[in-house]
UniProtKB/TrEMBL annotation:
Keyword Amino-acid biosynthesis set for record: yes
Name of the protein in its database record: Tryptophan synthase beta chain
N6-(pyridoxal phosphate)lysine PTM sites in chain numbering: 94
GO molecular function: tryptophan synthase activity
Catalysed conversion reaction: (1S,2R)-1-C-(indol-3-yl)glycerol 3-phosphate + L-serine = D-glyceraldehyde 3-phosphate + L-tryptophan + H2O
Domain of life where this protein originates: Bacteria
Amino-acid biosynthesis as UniProt keyword: yes
Source species taxonomy: Bacteria, Pseudomonadati, Bacteroidota, Bacteroidia, Bacteroidales
Cofactor(s) essential for the protein: pyridoxal 5'-phosphate
Enzyme Commission code: 4.2.1.20
GN (gene name): trpB
Tryptophan synthase beta chain-like PALP domain ranges (all copies): 61-382
Family affiliation: Belongs to the TrpB family.
Pathway info: Amino-acid biosynthesis; L-tryptophan biosynthesis; L-tryptophan from chorismate: step 5/5
């Protein structure tokens, strides 16, 4: 009999070292337990996996290419490979988890889906799979993000989702997540598809599992292209951390592969306008898990800031808190300006316009020196169509 075995450093209670767990109100205990039981039941189920794999191939368009960026490699004097999640249906990695979660929801008999979104990519992915599978969809999005990600808002509406603008707090991802959790408390028969490796256990593990297809493909593609499965470096941006979890997953237990997470420094780690949680945060609880949080000395959340809506979050997934504090992952803080510069370097030299989130990962190339024979894989988590207005407003296009 098959038994699911996670490659993550996680215990039975959902802790990665001292981070993780499930800190939830009583009304959600049964929901979370039922979700955990269903996930562990179906994750090994042959029919579930067959349906997931078929949709990944025929609907999403996987495997996404692993592309050697020759001109970028020449500029930085190393070997740079881009994992092209931007070429997935809906334009980002978010569709991987949305499909897996929606398939799980259907097997649990759920018909109403709740989601939160920052940059809009998770909202679009969730609205897409709800249209595909005939599910009702409600997406919560901060009013600030609604304004700066208008194309994705219209895409969600066109797909049949109800988009609820959230006007509390900083009107960004944290506030959208708060409202989605409130909805779930009031409507416990709904299924909440969380977009990142955050929230109470089993969400961080579940999202990482569905996103792990990224690193599974990287291993096979590197083997085919260069004759080895493991690169020297894997680089990804982190907000909540779903794309990084997927890119790191199948390399976490390979110590020779160095993992680099790029978080959003905004206007600078010490500027007071930042979303660099690992650099500026301390241990606390947010949205159902113990992790690193940007907070005051008495535990009040500090509002984050980033030019990137998808990284504008005052916490980090517990997996990434563990990887950072244990030394398994190196974490670099990337400012708005550094991300914009990296985006334009890729655009002008490879003809690929990255999402602002992905641009933070690309900026690592200017912050760290690599050897000429290194193989550096950067997870290009999304495309930049949604961010053209922001690029234009910041004089990046001329």
């Amino acid at each position: 009999m098959k038994k699911y075995r996670s490659l993550l450093p996680i215990d039975e209670e959902g802790y990665y070292g001292r981070f993780g767990g499930a800190y939830i109100p009583e009304i959600l205990h049964d929901n979370v337990k039922n979700l955990r039981d269903a996930f562990y039941r179906y994750v090994d189920d042959d029919d579930f996996q067959k349906e997931f794999d078929t949709l990944m191939r025929d609907y999403v368009g996987r495997p996404s290419p692993l592309y050697r960026a020759d001109r970028l490699s020449e500029i930085h004097k190393t070997n740079i490979y881009l994992k092209r999640e931007d070429l997935n249906h809906t334009g980002a990695h978010k569709i991987n988890n949305a499909i897996g979660s929606a398939l799980l929801a259907k097997r649990m008999g759920k018909t109403r889906i709740i989601a939160e979104t920052g940059a809009g990519q998770h909202g679009v992915a969730t609205a897409t799979v709800c249209a595909l599978m005939g599910l009702d969809c409600v997406v919560y999005m901060g009013a600030t993000d609604v304004a700066r990600q208008q194309p994705n808002v219209e895409r969600m509406k066109m797909l049949g989702a109800k988009v609820v603008a959230v006007h509390s707090g900083n009107k960004t991802l944290k506030d959208a997540t708060n409202e989605a959790i409130r909805d779930w408390c009031c409507n416990p028969d709904s299924f909440y598809i969380i977009g990142s490796t955050v929230g109470p256990h089993p969400y961080p593990e579940m999202v990482a599992h569905f996103q792990s297809i990224i690193s599974k493909e990287i291993r096979a593609q590197l083997k085919e292209q260069v004759g080895r499965e493991t690169p020297d470096y894997v680089v990804a941006c982190v907000g909540g951390g779903s794309n990084a979890a997927g890119a790191f997953y199948h390399f976490i237990n390979n110590p020779e592969v160095r993992l680099i997470a790029a978080e959003a420094a905004g206007k600078g780690v010490d500027s007071g306008e930042t979303a660099a949680t690992i650099h500026a945060g301390s241990e606390g609880i947010i949205h159902g898990s113990r992790t690193l949080v940007m907070q005051t000395s008495d535990g009040q959340i500090v509002e984050p800031y980033s030019i990137s809506a998808g990284l504008d979050y005052p916490g980090i997934g517990p997996l990434h808190a563990y990887l950072a504090t244990s030394g398994r992952a190196e974490v670099l803080a990337v400012t708005d300006t550094e991300a914009l510069d990296a985006a334009m370097t890729l655009t002008r030299n490879e003809g690929i316009i990255p999402a602002l989130e992905s641009a933070h990962a690309l900026a690592v190339l200017d912050k760290k020196r690599f050897h000429p024979d290194d193989i550096v894989v950067i997870n290009l988590s999304g495309r930049g169509d949604k961010d053209l207005h922001t690029y234009l407003m910041n004089n990046s296009i001329n």
